[in-house]
Amino acid sequence: MLAPKRVKHRKFQRGKKRGKSVAGSYVPFVEFGIKAMGVGTVSAQQIEACRVLVARRLKKGGKLWIRIFPDKSITKKPQETRMGKGKGDVDKWVATIRRGRIVFELGGIPESLARGLFRQIAYKLAFRTKFVKRGHVS
Q: pTM (2 decimals)?
């Protein structure tokens, strides 16, 4: 699973997820991308599931770029624990996604195959997505 090697603070506050993504909103590396049209979080497990899906479908052809990294910790307290006694232990790592962010990019394959793969990836994500091509502003 993806997780940072070291962080300044082990436990984060939740923060706001609203707004547009300024950085990472265009396709610079390869031909096709999948853009987030909503806000949310993507866990390291979801990113890994998408990576495995693409790796199995592509075999040796094509290239996948993962444009997000789970660098925010989500904590959780154990079941049936009383209130208080501090913040819970780190449960998982997530990447916060804002509207307009390119999440994955695919290259070296035909457009029809890329559209099909991105449709399958979209089922694994918790927000609406859109297929984009390189050079198209949308």
A: 0.89
Report CA-CA distances (Å) from 36 to 23, 55, 72, 79. Answer: 13, 21, 18, 33
Write down the CATH number for the domain with range 32-71+90-133: 3.90.1170.10
What is the reported pLDDT for 82?
94
For residue 23, the model assigns a pLDDT of 83
How far apart CA 92 and CA 117 sit, in angstroms, is 26
Whole-angstrom CA distances from 68 to 16, 33, 61, 112 are 18, 13, 22, 24
CA distances 104 to 15, 56, 93, Å, are 24, 16, 18
Stated length of the chain? 138
Q: What are the residue ranges in the chain where pLDDT is below 70?
A: 136-138
> Structural domain boundaries of the chain?
32-71+90-133
